[in-house]
Design brief:
By secondary structure, this protein is of the alpha+beta class. About 50% of the residues lie in helices and about 20% in strands. It folds into two domains: about 60 residues; about 90 residues, no CATH class. Strands 1-4-3-2 form a four-stranded mixed sheet. It holds the Pfam family YtrI_sporulation.
Length: about 160
């Protein structure tokens, strides 16, 4: 009787072990596969991070190196051709002079609203004719561009406008 009981217990343990192995084996296989996938993903992310670090180490801050001024004269037909060319040149020179302190500044640290404030509504005198400047667009990058319109004034001075 003892041998039968011992045999039944041994068969029960073996069949229980086989059943647990079958049930938990699939789960262990899934977890092992998921673990391997996560390891590969981690390696790929670490490689990507290393590339970003290398790029940042060689990255210099973007600074303003040039100013490009584009002037459009309003009521251009009323201004003689040579006066138009002279007005373009004088206005561009004044705007470059006003914005000269921006050269060498880091683009990321610059107050981008500063540029229109410096130029907008300023008056420029070109051979006795006054022009009021109006900023239309500013593109801030290494080569900063400012697009503006110059409106010739019929009066000698406009209220609230500063001269040069």
């Amino acid at each position: 009787m003892k041998a039968r009981l011992l045999a039944a217990m041994l068969i029960g343990m073996l069949s229980g072990g086989a059943l647990v192995n079958a049930l938990l084996g699939q789960q262990v296989d899934r977890l092992t596969l998921a673990n391997n996938e996560l390891k590969e993903e981690l390696l790929a992310t670490e490689r990507e991070l290393q590339q970003v670090k290398e790029n940042l180490a060689g990255h210099r801050p973007q600074t303003i190196t040039a100013l490009e001024v584009n002037v459009t004269l309003v009521q251009e037909k009323e201004i003689p051709g040579l006066d138009q060319a002279r007005a373009h040149l004088v206005i561009e020179n004044h705007v470059r002079e006003w914005l000269h302190p921006l050269l060498g500044q880091e683009v990321s640290r610059l107050d981008h609203l500063l540029i229109p404030r410096v130029v907008d509504r300023r008056q420029v005198d070109v051979d006795g004719r006054k022009y009021v400047l109006e900023v239309k667009l500013v593109v801030v990058s290494e080569r900063t561009m400012i697009y503006l319109e110059a409106l010739p004034q019929k009066n000698a001075s406009a209220p609230g406008m500063s001269n040069q």
